[in-house]
Design brief:
The complex is a heterodimer of chains A (328) and B (170). By secondary structure, chain A is an alpha/beta fold. Chain A has 2 domains: 138 residues, Rossmann fold (3-Layer(aba) Sandwich), CATH 3.40.50; 154 residues, 3-Layer(aba) Sandwich (Rossmann fold). Chain A has a 5-stranded parallel beta sheet with strand order 7-6-5-8-9. Chain A has 11 helices and 9 strands. In chain A, helix 1 packs across helix 5, helix 1 packs across helix 6 and helix 1 crosses helix 10. Helix content of chain B is 26%, strand content 27%. In chain B, helix 1 packs across helix 2. Chain B is α/β, with parallel strands linked by helices and 170 residues long. In chain B, strand 2, helix 2 and strand 3 form a beta-alpha-beta unit. Chain B contains 3 helices and 8 strands. The termini of chain B are close together. Chain B has a single domain, classed as Rossmann fold (3-Layer(aba) Sandwich), CATH 3.40.50. Classes of the chains: A alpha/beta (328), B alpha/beta (170). At the A-B interface, helix 1 and helix 11 of A face helix 3 of B.
């Protein structure tokens, strides 16, 4: 149990496994005709997004609703931030309304840690700057675990993460989650798109990683080429990027059919993936979205099922204590 | 509960005989096995549901057997750590069926209450019956078993463990 989920590193390998095990239970709930359980009745989850998002915000809100929690949404563009209210005042105001968990996305690295320090509620980092997006890492790990049937870990699994590593919080969190489970992760990017702290396995040769026979990889993870970066002259032009780092028809044909192709979305069609993903036998991009709900349900349940503030003395009555012994 | 030496109340033979008797009672009560399915409550009830299923198959015929984890329906989430231990597995429709819900120990009745709520999300059974190996008393809800292996008066300080090897109070 943890009170907040800020990064994969703080969650730890055991925490990653715990969330993924719990996600199996949540996935079973999601397969039912009525995918809803009463587990978090009376809890309130507030999403606070200072950056645009479609899938992450909807995914968290769906997850909260399927656990019967109430949801609130804070959209920065329609808020009193425009009147000059600070982040701290905003969070304290919302917290005073009785919120059990904040799901926060902010353009500044570290913002969720600040928020975590200001409130007794749980905090989930739904993306901070270039830094971390832990639930994306968890849902990617869960997708690999279920699609390749690797419940016991990823020892020996060969993963390539391709694209704009430098500006990608997804790359960092997904690398951390895969590595925590034992996978070998290689970063593939032009040197201008690698972070200053170089990963031990980094290369700019995608074809070498895939291998001549296409058997060099178990997971090919394509990152979104962020168009807004083009102005910074980090790559010569998008066509050359696609030729060197994109999943072209030639590379797709060479790829072994069991190799998973993943993407955090939204896809720049014709740039990082230049073929129709629905025609790739190993593409699991839609499963990533579906699994995101189960994984976020697991995260919310893991945090909120112990009460919003575990530092307080949880009252355990005799009957509950006795029942616990009975079930242990 | 720490100073008492564990006391074996039933041995493996007793558990086996009780299982056989309960299997016969299930068939008798339902006048056959039409529409009857077994669902064990995770985790303690699962082996017993399978054992009952084996006995029923030996006596008459095989019937569908599944398992349900009721953790997400408990009323003490937030009061204590409640973590699902296993994934529910009900590979058959339960509408209009007669469900025999199976658990190892019946105590406060709160687990059964949670399991009944969980079953409601899978469909609408015609009826639900309850089979337990040990009824240890101390009910907190209006729930009673239909099939009992052994009635065992206990104190709330005691711990009852039920396995295929037998029943132990400690």
């Amino acid at each position: 149990m943890s009170r907040s989920l800020l990064s994969i590193d703080e969650l730890g390998a055991d925490g990653v496994r715990r969330i993924l095990d719990l996600a199996d239970t949540m996935a079973e709930v999601n397969r039912r005709p009525n995918p809803k359980v009463p587990a978090l009745r009376g809890k309130t989850v507030c999403s606070v997004f200072f950056e645009d998002s479609t899938r992450t915000r909807l995914s968290f809100e769906t997850a909260a609703k399927r656990l019967s929690a109430d949801t609130m949404t804070f959209a920065a563009s329609q808020s009193s931030l425009n009147k000059g209210e600070s982040l701290k005042d905003t969070i304290e105001t919302i917290a005073a309304m009785g919120v059990d968990a904040f799901v926060i996305r902010h353009r500044s690295t570290g913002a969720p840690w600040l928020v975590d320090g200001w409130t007794n509620a749980s905090v989930v980092n739904a993306g901070d700057g270039w830094h971390a997006h832990p639930t994306q890492g968890l849902l990617d790990a869960y997708t690999v675990r279920t699609c390749l049937n690797r419940p016991d870990g990823f020892d020996g699994l060969r993963v390539a993460i391709v694209g704009d590593i430098k500006h990608s919080r997804v790359a960092r969190s997904t690398t951390a989650a895969f590595t925590a489970l034992g996978a070998d992760v290689t970063w593939v990017a032009p040197s201008t798109l690698l972070p200053p702290v170089v990963h031990e396995h980094a290369t700019d040769r995608l074809d070498d990683v895939i291998g001549a026979d296409g058997e060099g990889l178990d997971v090919l993870y394509m990152l979104r080429m962020q168009n807004e970066r083009m102005t910074e002259a980090l790559v010569p032009n998008l066509r050359e990027y696609t030729t060197r780092f994109g999943l072209t028809a030639e590379r797709a044909a060479r790829l072994a059919p069991q190799t998973l192709v993943m993407h955090p979305g939204p896809i720049n069609r014709g740039v990082e993936i230049a073929v129709d993903p629905s025609e790739l036998p190993g593409a699991v991009i839609n499963q990533q979205v579906t699994n995101g709900i189960s994984v976020r349900m697991a995260v919310l349940y893991d945090m909120l099922s112990i009460g919003s503030d575990p530092t307080s003395d949880i009252v355990i009555t005799d009957a509950v204590a006795a029942e616990r012994t009975e079930e242990s | 509960m720490q100073d008492r030496a564990p006391k074996a109340v039933l041995g493996s033979e007793d558990v086996r005989r009780a299982t056989t008797r309960m299997a016969h009672e299930i068939i008798e009560r339902n006048q056959g096995l039409d529409g009857v399915v077994l669902i064990g409550i995770q985790t303690g009830g699962v082996w017993l549901a399978e054992a009952l299923g084996g006995e029923i198959a030996r006596i008459d015929r095989e019937i569908p057997t599944g398992s349900i984890d009721a953790s997400l329906y408990r009323d003490d989430i937030g009061l204590r750590p409640v973590s699902p231990a296993a994934v529910s597995d009900i590979g058959f429709g339960i509408d209009a069926s007669t469900i025999v819900l199976v658990d190892d120990v019946l105590y406060t009745g709160r687990t059964v209450r949670a399991a009944l709520d969980a079953l409601g999300d899978y469909g609408r059974p015609r009826s639900v019956q309850l089979a337990v190996m040990v009824d240890r008393g101390h009910r907190e809800l209006p729930i009673r078993p239909d099939f009992v292996g052994k009635n065992l008066p206990t104190s709330t300080a005691e711990d009852v463990s039920v396995t295929v090897e037998g029943v132990v109070i400690s």
